[in-house]
From TrEMBL:
Organism the protein comes from: Sphaerisporangium rufum
Protein name: Peptidase
Residue ranges of every copy of the DJ-1/PfpI domain listed in the record: 3-177
Family: Belongs to the peptidase C56 family.
Residues annotated as signal peptide: none
Length: 187
């Protein structure tokens, strides 16, 4: 089975992070989690509550980290996942994250983005001409990055699979597993 790299950091959304890790492992894939350092990252729980105009955020579990970004050899992996939450906002500026993410796009390898995850390839100019989902308030950001925004739970553009957030994870997971397993859905 495939080795899959997950890029994350503190304040990544808990479900966006843990669900794909467990789903990929359930599917027989080896999952390696990378962050700025090898200490466990502190996840957060985002929820939608009545009376709030935005989502709420509470502390979540910790996610063990296997490798620091600087030590990642992207050629050792078949696919990449970038969970959402606030982590993409700051990991997108890391030069090693740029090196890693560019590798996957340049080699047309499977890339999964969840919720705020598309902020990383957007900041690197990698979404120009592509179709993506993201957390709906990011629509303008995605369009400014040159992408076509689609408000859907499982947007497949070639080897890239994206979704709006954790409520979409069942649909996103099915689509990402099809792409990873080589049975891509037509664009």
């Amino acid at each position: 089975m495939a080795r899959v790299l997950v890029l994350t950091g503190d304040a990544a959304e808990e479900l966006d992070s843990m669900y794909p890790v467990f789903r990929l492992r359930e599917g027989g894939h080896e999952v390696i989690v990378a962050a700025l350092s090898t200490r466990a990252v502190k996840l957060v729980v985002h929820d939608f509550e009545a009376g709030w105009d935005a989502y709420t955020e509470r502390p979540g579990h910790q996610l063990p980290v296997d490798l620091a970004f600087a030590d990642v050899r992207p050629e050792d992996y078949r696919a990449l996942v970038i969970p959402g939450g606030r982590a993409p906002e700051y990991i997108r500026t890391d030069p090693d994250v740029a090196r890693i993410v560019r590798h996957f796009f340049e080699h047309d390898l499977p890339v999964g983005t969840i919720c705020h995850g598309p902020q990383v390839p957007a900041a690197l100019g990698l979404l120009r001409g592509r179709t993506t989902a993201a957390f709906p308030p990011l629509r303008a950001d995605m369009e400014m990055a040159g992408a076509t925004f689609v408000d859907a739970p499982d947007v497949v553009d070639g080897a890239m699979v994206s979704c709006r957030g954790w409520p979409d994870l069942p649909e996103w997971s099915r689509a990402f597993m099809r792409v990873l397993d080589g049975t891509r859905v037509p664009v």
